[in-house]
Amino acid sequence: KNEVEQSPQNLTAQEGEFITINCSYSVGISALHWLQQHPGGGIVSLFMLSSGKKKHGRLIATINIQEKHSSLHITASHPRDSAVYICAVASVDDKIIFGKGTRLHILP
Amino acid sequence: DVKVTQSSRYLVKRTGEKVFLECVQDMDHENMFWYRQDPGLGLRLIYFSYDVKMKEKGDIPEGYSVSREKKERFSLILESASTNQTSMYLCASRPGTGWFYGYTFGSGTRLTVV
Fold it and tell me: Which of B51, B110, B65 is nearest to B86 (CA)?
């Protein structure tokens, strides 16, 4: 079983829809990262969370440490949000473990 | 903003060639990392370095080596390229050791070995 599981693996939605991507993990963590990777490869860090909730523009990330679960939400989705979203956890021994990613496609 | 620059976006090499992938960061970060990314497998750590001249094996070091002679530069070396090393390679850096530091990634090098 993977230590970091994301769902769904692929998601296609219409422009304007509310998007939720989920991440569950099975190890003790110090922090959780949400990353965005556009076609072409470069990865951008969106959030780093150790508790609660963070918001940046139309993006919201939440984490529930007790349930070992995090969600990334996108409000009023737009075709430029189309990308792969990757959840990564920083374990207590300073190792970073990546999920396999969620491929999001927003249709105009 | 911190910038992590990978020297090539796309590279095609022949089996058996020695391949150098270069990564340079411009903000005096202590830690640097090399990952490969394959469909269905996600990012996997090849090697990392916590300081100049230091290197540590990651999860999949076989067939690779690294060099960190200067703080800003971390090179990944494929001693004798093979087709199973065809992949996307990503370099990352962070200011220091500790979970509270965020990572900055390069744009990636897509390597094809023929």
Answer: B110
DSSP B59: S
Under an 8 A CB cutoff, do A101 and B42 touch?
A: yes
**Torsion angle defined by CA atoms of residues B7, B12, B17 and B22, in that order, rounded to the nearest 10 degrees:** 10
**pLDDT tens figures, A78-99:** 999 999 999 999 988 888 899 9
Closest Cα in chain B to A43: B105
- Pick from B29, B59, B30, B11: which is nearest to B21 by CA? B11
Which is nearest to A66 in space by CA: A54, A79, A80, A52?
A52
* Mean pLDDT of the region B46-67: 95
Q: Are B108 and B4 in contact (CB under 8 A)?
A: no
Q: Do B103 and A42 touch (CB under 8 A)?
A: no
Residue B36 has phi, psi (to 5 degrees) of -120, 150
User: Between β-strands B42-49 and B104-105, what pairing exists: parallel, antiparallel or unpaired?
Assistant: unpaired
Q: What are phi and psi of A13, to 5 degrees?
A: -145, 165
- List, in sequence order, every beta strand (DSSP E) within chain B: 4-6, 10-13, 19-25, 31-38, 42-49, 56-57, 64-70, 73-78, 87-94, 104-105, 109-113
